[in-house]
């Protein structure tokens, strides 16, 4: 036994040493952080297999050795210790005199009553005792049956309770409501720094109607400019691009006759009308007012007014 253990102690480290030898080679040949290639994988599998085989062989050898020695000089048979049986009987007597909760729970009957409990049949001499299942267990069993039936009725038959599918659908619907509420709220927190160029048809359309009611009197129905400047060209008095346009609309240029729209339009509406104005870029409407201000070049590609015009599907001059 000792010898085998010793030999195992000698063999295992040598396998480890071999593995350690292989590992650097594997690491060197593999592409960086790609893992093991198939040859290295094979080596690892073979190594693992070898180790398992070795352990099993050692265990088997050990078993054979024990059996062999048992053959040579068998361990003398020692009958089961009587003391344990005696102990059991004393325990049983005590138990019957004053049954523990466990015994009561199992509704075990005392040994003396056993002859009354024997059922009148035997199979190959094996007799059966009439030990009924404890009442609490039967009650529990019945309760589970009743529960199962009511559960089935509640969820599957009557449709009172929501099944998982339905619960999921409900929660998704609830989430959608919250999501729209959140989006509506967050849309109203936009300012000149966070406003985004968005030529989605719905937004441009909304902007168009806001423009028609509020702005067209001064800027013309096509943004060509009347009192206010032309909003369709490359030239801007206060800067082009979504952020500047938003800012001009929000704060206005009161001294020059363009009021601040902050109080009349919420941020979402200002954003929509600003996006509509950018969508007008390059439309060159009839009777367009002469360019005023400086030519605007977008520094930020997302801010590029040209893009808004070319992408826009809503407003395009034929
Ligand atoms: C009462 C007339 C009037 C109304 C109504 C009006 N504007 Fe103006 N707007 C002007 C004038 C005038 C200017 C030029 C200000 C300046 O010279 O600095 C101007 C400037 C602008 C500019 C800046 C143009 C540039 O070249 O930088 C934008 C953008 C603009 N208006 C958008 C709007 C929008 C959007 C509305 C409607 C919500 C609107 N305006 C309503 C008179 C008006």
Strand residue content: under 5%
How many helices? 12
CATH class categorisation of the largest domain:
Mainly Alpha
| CATH homologous superfamily placement of the largest domain | Cytochrome c-like domain
Q: What separation lies between the terminal Cα atoms?
A: 99 Å
- Helix percent reads 55-70%
The total tally of domains equals: 3
Question: Quick one: overall form?
Answer: elongated
Do you know the CATH topology of the largest domain?
Cytochrome Bc1 Complex, Chain D, domain 2
H-E order: HHHHHEEHHHHEHHEH
Main sheet? Answer: 2 strands, antiparallel
What is the second-level CATH architecture of the largest domain?
Orthogonal Bundle
- Main β-sheet, spatial strand arrangement: 1-2
Average of the residue pLDDT scores: 82
* Uncertain regions spanning at least 5 consecutive residues: 22-32, 306-318
- The chain-level structural class is mainly alpha
Rg for CA atoms: 45 Å
Which ions, cofactors or small ligands are bound in this entry?
Answer: heme C
Number of strands: 4
Can you walk me through this structure?
- The chain is mainly alpha-helical and 318 residues long.
- It has three domains: 2-72; 82-129, no CATH class; 201-311, Cytochrome Bc1 Complex, Chain D, domain 2 (Orthogonal Bundle).
- Helices cover 58% and strands 4% of the residues.
- The chain has helices at residues 2-29, 38-72, 82-97, 101-105, 114-117, 135-157, 164-187, 201-214, 216-219, 241-251, 267-279, 305-311, and strands spanning 118-123, 126-129, 235-236, 294-295.
- It has a two-stranded antiparallel sheet.
- The longest helix has 35 residues, at 38-72.
- The protein binds heme C (HEC).
- Heme C binds at residues 214-215, 217-219, 227-229, 231, 236-238, 245, 248-249, 253, 256-258, 261, 273, 277, 293.
- The site of heme C has 23 residues, from α9, α10 and α11.
